[in-house]
Amino acid sequence: MKAVAFYLPQFHVIPENERIYGKGFTEWRNVTQAVPLFEGHYQPHIPHKLLGYYDLTDEKTLVLQHELAYANGITGFCYYYYNLAGLRPLEKPLKIINNSKYIQNNFCFCWDHSSWYDNKKGPTAPPFIQQVYSAKEARAMLLGLESYFANPRYIHMEDKPLLLVFAPERHPEIRLYCDIWREEARRIGFAGLCLAGVEAFVGCHPAVYGLDCMVEFAPSWRKENELSAAGEEPRRIDYIKTLRFMLAKEVPDYPRMRCAFPSWDNTPRRGKSGIVAVNTSSEAFAVMTRYMAEYTQANLPASMQYLFFNAWNEWGEGCHLEPDERYGFTFLHIVRDTLQQLAAVSPNT
Fold first, then answer.
1. How far apart are CA 31 and CA 271, in angstroms?
2. Residue 168: what pLDDT?
3. pTM of this prediction?
């Protein structure tokens, strides 16, 4: 079993963001400007001095970051991949990682196919980058991924590159894309593709979308787990209740890889309209991590022995295994120690 953390390649300047949010904008601006919005609200999250407010176009930073993850059990990353009608605004760090001789972590991609909206205005305003869906775009996207799929470090399942699609139910042509991607993958020499949907909002059998499996997204939202009164901002969810809900899920009749999360707070990005998980703790995260790992061992085939974590560096969503100044390496060490403990008692080792 291997740990794979979702990873946001946002922390570098791109002209598309500068046009909307101002010169020099990166996600760090939101993170540093965050403030507490209620008593006991932990903000801002300050990255550990080992990495600081980094720039992901610096290979030395990327190498250090990946070495830190690998040494603590995160041997794989799932990088968010943005392709909006051929525009790939956050690809520069991915190219550096793909070509680096010093990074040993395995990796795969999760395509977030959403249009881009101004976070200050929300999705009711017109997007400033519009996604376009077509057979032509599907083929072009797959060909753009060829060099990544060919990397020996890219994660394969039964000899097929693994590609995740975020919220497939929101993709209007998902079955068409799946058919075209598999066709193009075979045409350029791969055995096919293993296509996984990310259950970010709803759960459904992957066959409905033409996919092979699903990946749980954490946290799993549920109205009953909210602690906020009607109209209260920001909304608050109970981490312990969310944990219990996620642990109580029945084993589905399709392969679903599980996911754990250390915390959640997207007020740096959303302000008072954000959602904050309260009653978080390292002890509760340790329970979640162990349960999800044991579930993976017991219920998933050998090719899918992967446990996902949300996330490595979602600082704008207060959801990061990457060390901060308050908790240091606590959450990262829980992942390391849990996997080592389970490996020591596994009958397969």
1. 11
2. 97
3. 0.97
